[in-house]
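[SOLVED] Predicted holo structure with S-adenosylmethionine

Edit: marking solved, answer below. Original request kept for reference. I posted the sequence and ligand SMILES and asked for the 3D complex as structure tokens.
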Amino acid sequence: MNKKKLRESNLKEEKPKYGWYVKNLIIGFNIIGLLGLIAFIYGFLICDFFNIILLILGIAIMLVFLWPGIGMVMMHLLLLGRLSLVTKMNALDKIDNPQILDVGCGTGRTALSIAKELKNGGHLYGIDIYSKLAIPGNALERVQKNAQIEKVDNKTTFQYGSATEIPFENDKFDIVNASSVFHEVHDSNGQNIAMQEVYRVLKLGGYFYLSEWNRKSWQCIAFGGICCFAFKNKNHWENLLKINNFRDISYENRAGFGIFVAKK
Ligand SMILES: C[S@@+](CC[C@H](N)C(=O)[O-])C[C@H]1O[C@@H](n2cnc3c(N)ncnc32)[C@H](O)[C@@H]1O
């Protein structure tokens, strides 16, 4: 077997590794939450004053840690494995040879699902700072390998780059996507700069797809518990889009994720 065929047959057997978001946090929350459960059971079984305190403490720890710990596991099992964080990009059908940028592509869960939709030309570029906090195993090499396994490496290019300093020229892209990334650019000023950067690299009439967990959705509360406070509501993102001159803003709630589509 020649080298090319050997490489192809190895890749055929491999599955892409997208990783779990905030895996270490999920493990930590579940361990602390289980300690809370043990305190609760102990306090429940042996009734005296000290154990009532233990019981209350156990309930508090379970609410804060075990709820989102189990919720985030369920979210991965029930939602993320089945769902790309962007609806079908209707904009793709309207543009010849679309040039797309995925900001904060990570290991490629969303980026590669978009690249697979590129049936008649076009190219997807992905940038990320490859933070391991968000996804353990997050790395440029990982997303490139995933692209090979998913057989879209000929229509994708990945590189290092920050949302607040996008390493491309003005007016380059027909579509920019950012799925579950902007909340990680922590302060509103950073998010504002990142939006200005998206606006800058979009062509006039280009589309910006922005997906963010909506903290007011029942799915965020059910799966995230107290962690929902780490996310913003719909108005926050809508205002940022408006003050950065995006127009024709539409919104869809998809399993707890708010998906905005806006035009430059
Ligand atoms: C929750 S993950 C989402 C990854 C990917 N968009 C997806 O749909 O699977 C968030 C990603 O945002 C990246 N990120 C965080 N801050 C960033 C920044 N300032 N610029 C670019 N990427 C960033 C992280 O490294 C991580 O890969």
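OP edit: Residues 21, 85, 103-106, 109-110, 128-131, 134-135, 138, 162-164, 179-181, 184-185 surround S-adenosylmethionine (CB under 6 Å). Thanks to everyone who chimed in.
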